[in-house]
């Protein structure tokens, strides 16, 4: 529940981000990607983890709802605009799982190798061996929230196929088993520039980059 100082207000869309921005995450990989994406805009990014902010319970029923919960909690607690990402892997043959529960599949110790094995085992139990049976996509929902409760929300998606065994040691999460459409290397085999470098130098390939491009157009200005 929002506090009195953090109620949603009817404010015109497209509010600009200036100065400091709290990245509402305790995930180092996600923080690193967000800092790289924000670097060109002169935004001072600090994480919720660095500020010692508690992680709110993610009780939303969608990526967007969970991103909003995290962003509003961080904005209210820090009295500073905050950006949250909620993202995950959606596997078609598994009815959309792990979806918003992608991090939970990794357990309390965040063992994503075990989570990838769990996904692959679930697919094998369905005899899903052919590429067309292993279709999946990543979703990233970004929410920027201000202490007055105003929010801006954006979503990006990238489609691909799940491979086994995992390939590459870059990125984080399920990256080593995700082969994006049109490429012969997994996200785990791509460096950060190739995965989420922004146009004109990069392709804005990842789900988070695609959501960020929308965010930047609406809320950021280059210095």
Strand content: 15-25%
- Biggest sheet character: 6 strands, mixed
User: Overall pLDDT, averaged?
Assistant: 92
Question: Taking Cα atoms only, what radius of gyration do you get, to the nearest Å?
Answer: 17 Å
- Compute the number of strand runs: 6
Low-confidence stretches: 1-5, 8-12
CATH topology: Maf protein
**The first-level CATH class name:** Alpha Beta
Report the span from N to C terminus.
36 Å
Q: Could you give the order of strands across the largest sheet?
A: 2-1-3-4-5-6
Which H/E pattern describes the elements?
EHEHHEHEEEHH
Q: What is the name of the CATH architecture?
A: Alpha-Beta Complex
Helix content range of the residues, please? 25-40%
Class from secondary-structure proportions: alpha/beta
What is the 3D shape?
globular
Individual helix count: 6
Number of domains: 1
Describe this structure in words.
There is one protein chain. The protein is an alpha/beta fold and 223 residues long. It has a single domain (4-219), classed as Alpha-Beta Complex (Maf protein), CATH 3.90.950. 28% of the residues lie in helices and 20% in strands. The protein is built from six helices and six strands, in the order E-H-E-H-H-E-H-E-E-E-H-H. The chain has helices at 28-38, 48-51, 63-78, 112-125, 192-196, 207-219, and strands spanning 20-23, 44-47, 82-91, 135-145, 151-162, 178-180. The protein has a six-stranded mixed beta sheet. The longest helix has 16 residues, at 63-78. The chain starts with 19 loop residues before the first strand and ends with a helix.
